[in-house]
Each structure stands twice: as C-alpha cells, then as structure tokens.
Amino acid sequence: MNKAAKDNKLCSMREAIAAYVVDDCSVCIEGFTGFISFAAGHEIIRQRRRGLTLIRMTPDLIYDQMIAAGTAKKLIFSYTGNPGVGSLYCIRRAVEKALPCPLELEEYSHYGLVGRYAAGASRSPFFALRSYVGSDMLAANPLIKLIDDPYGTGKIAVVPPLNPDVAILHAQRADRQGNTQLWGLLGMQKEVAFASKHVIVAVEELVDESVIRADPNRTLIPGLIVDAVVHSPYGAHPSYVQGYYDRDNESYLAWDKLSQEHAAVIAWLDEWVYGLENHAAYLRKLGQEHFDKLKPEPLLAPSVDYGRYR
Amino acid sequence: MSEPTYTESEMMIAVAARMLEGARTVFVGVGLPNIACNLARYTVAPDMELIYESGVYGARPERLPLSIGDPTLVSGAISVVSMADLFGLYLQRGLVEIALLGGAQIDRYGNLNSTVIGAYAKPKTRLPGSGGACEIATNAQRTFMIMRLKRRAFVEKLDFLTSPGHLTGGDSRARLGLPGGGPELVITDKAILNFANPEREMQLTALYPGVTREDVQAEVGWPLRLADTIQETAAPTNKELRLIREEVDPHAMYR
Questions:
Q1: A142: pLDDT strictly greater than 60
Q2: ipTM of the predicted structure?
Q3: Does B117 contact A at CB distance below 8 Å?
Q4: Which of B10, B53, B97, B240 is catalytic?
Q5: Gap between the Cα atoms of A239 and A30, Å rounded
Q6: What is the pLDDT of residue B251?
Q7: Average of pLDDT values for B103-111?
Q8: Which of A134, A236, B223, B246 is within CB 3.0–4.6 Å of B164 for a Cys-Cys bond?
C-alpha cells in the first residue's frame, strides 16, 4: 500500500503486525507510561516473532512480557522499571541469566534517546545535548560521543539518528487515513512516528476526517506517514489513555509479584496471550465492569474559536 | 503541648520541604520527593510549580501520582509538552531551579549510580538506569538528593557513575563545562549533608533529634567530613505533621 495515498488504511491488529513486524526487525511501541499498545505487543507474541530489536524509553510491562516470550534479542532503552512499582524481572532475568535467551542492551538517558528519535524524525545527522559529560554512560555505549563544539563552547555530547523499522503508537482518535489526534502526555510519539520507516496507529475511536479538521492543533501524526490504522479500544490496557481510562494499577502491582518466577510468566502468557484469539477476546475475558471502574470523571476543556476566514 | 511523635519518613519529608523555601520551579519524581514538594507548597514555597520529566509544567495533581507519567499530572497543569521540549526548553534552557534526585549509590562528591551493582557487562544487579537523571544532574541550577542513609548506598567508590555530581571535587565540574551548579544537599533519614567547602566534598551539617555523629558515620563508607558547626534539625512541627497526614499523604502511601 502507498502510505501517502489517501486510502482507507483500516485493518485488524493481526493484519497490521503480520504485514509490518517481521523477524529480526526493529520495533518501537512507544508512549510514556500511558498510550502503550499492549494489544500490539500481545499480537507480536501471539505471532511468535523472533530476533526483534525492541526500542522504548521505558520498557514497562509490555516489553517485560515480550522479552519473557522470547521475541527479542536486543533492547534499546533509557529506563527499565515497572513505573512507580519496582523492577522488571523478566528483563533482569534475560540480562542477568540469559533466560529465556540472551538480551543485548543499548542504553541511553531519556534526553539521549529522545534526541535519537528527534534526529531520526528530521533525518538530521545527529542530535547535540548537554548531558553525559563526566558520566560512565559514555563508556557503556560507544554510539554516544563527545565532540568539540565547532562554535567554541567546549565538549558536547551527540547521539545518532534512530529510525525504527516499525513504530506502533496508540492515541485517542484517528481517521481512516491515519490522521491522528492525541492529548495528554505527548511523550515522544510525534518524533517516533516521523522517525520510523513504517507506522501503525492504534486508536480508541475512529472518527471522520471532518473531526480531525475541526481541531488541527491537536493532530500529532499526519496520515501521510501512517501505514495502518487499527481500531483498538482499551488497546493500551493496563496502561492508560487520558480521558478514556485510568492505569489499571492492580495489574502493575500483580505483575510485580507474578513476574518474579519465569514459570509463572509462561503460565500467564498461555492464559492471557496465546490462549486468546485477539484483543477483543482479552477484553471479554476481563469483562466490561472491569473497564467501567477505570473510567475517570469527565473534565472537559472549553472549545476554542479557530475563526472562519473566507 | 506534648512532643509530637513521627516516623523517619515524615522527618525526611518535613526537612526536604523546608529546604525548598521560596523555590519557584522544582523538578520532581514520585514518592517522597513529590510529597515534600506538596508540603512545601502549603508552607514555605506557595508559588512553586512542579516539573515532571514526562512533559508537565505546573502540575496540580488531585491525587498522589502513581508514577511520573500519571494522568492526574496532566489534568489542571499549566502546560503539557513533548519530552523533547521538556528536556530542551525547560531543563537545558536552565528553567529548573531545584532538582530532587536519588540513586542506589552516592559517593563523597555527590555523584550518583542508578545503573548497575557490579560490573556493567556482567551486573550483580541491573538497576533501572538513568532515565532523565544524567541530564537533570547536568543542567538543574541546584540539585538536592533525598536518600536514606545506608552503608551500601554511601560508598567510597561507585560501581557506575550515572549522573555527575561534583565529579572529582573542587572545580572539576565547572572545568568540564557542566551548566548546573551540582549537588548542594543530601537529605537523609538521620542527618543533613552538604558540599559547602572548596573541595565540594560531602560533609555532615545537621543531625536529627537523637542521632549522633557516630550513628551517621556508621552508615557512610568513607571517613565523613564534618562542617565547622553541626546544627540540630528541629523535629517536624504539629502543623507539618497535620499537613502530611491530612493533606499531602492522607492514605499513608509513603509513610
């Protein structure tokens, strides 16, 4: 499909993953604490991809699960923890004990990885930032370099562009061409979308193009760079989507306990991923009541006047 | 009036809040630092705006955030920006007055390790890594550490230097061109330490009620320098305790 064409790019998550996520490619499922497409991660596990390079600033539960399932050979990241809870035990087992397989790490600070996305997005040769001077992170990752500022302010750190093969980004809404609107923590979604060779957007709501055009300041990702649009309600569970559902913190706490044993993780994957046909089946298994409890009270922003000029 | 009873965490929260007096912008993590900032807003820093690395300026969370990416930080904030803008336009631009940091290990010059225990290539324990800490420690005007005093944390030599403090001491930080002022205070559960000497070496400056110099030295892995005068830090007041218990941490999540 020609992504630049104004085609209907709507497809199922199964079709999107089958088309764009192949063995040994680099995959970036982003979203800072919220907007994390667990639906995509689970589908990648279900389709038994192998040898992936997983890219994410904060690996979160979804990469812990994908790594325990044996999909990955490498992780590019800037903070690996269960946010607000503790460790990610599957990633630690892969690093410390090569279980279920060895995992190569490529490590940055947040601004360093944001900078790699930003350079990748604008096809710049590198991104310069005030960080890393004096830190052992320079020795741990030879891709982070110090250069002499050509304008004479001394040493400055640079990082190279990062262009993932596939990005999978969750948001509130998009139209069928992939024009995508997101509000809440913007994270690095825009930079990742523009940096990546292929982009899959997963959204809570499919809307008409007129809804997008009515509020253009809210459009983060243009359909011009989107390959596939997946209607994926609750697809970020147990992470959250601003205004739609809260983080399911019980799941994060439960994972902290459950994930301490590899065998328990495999049993969980059998029940909640391999044993289910798709994300709709996952939602049915949890039940609508579960999600009703995660719905926040409304807090509407007043609308703005763009003006009509003709 | 009877002597108030309080926990070590409440003492740390009260002390950290007092140190934020008059602060306009504070770069904050979750947990105890977050509670300290909220307490400071009620007491010594009413104009304080909270900055989170997730991209939030001027958060007014209605609940205690579960993580630095909690949606409660968005609703009611002054501005929500991309992380590229947060790190570039707020942090590197120099708009962060005070950053609160912690780590698994700290050395005498306030350098922090949050990456590994053991060798990097074959770690005994893999820790979360930098997150934003390396650039926060580089660029914030002032850095305060909030850490419990433990011998395994206050070490002679870091296993890995994640975030630069005063590096090898003296003016080594300025010579390398780091823009921020570096570590200023270490707020612990037993004492306050600072770096107010030409060598920029950590020194004991205040003891909490009932704590001795020996108690502090026992938890530090090098001969700890002493400030010229050592103060006794006042216990949390009834007002501070009431605010902590009723307003900023009513569900006792971090006490």
A1: yes
A2: 0.96
A3: no
A4: B53
A5: 12
A6: 84
A7: 97
A8: A134
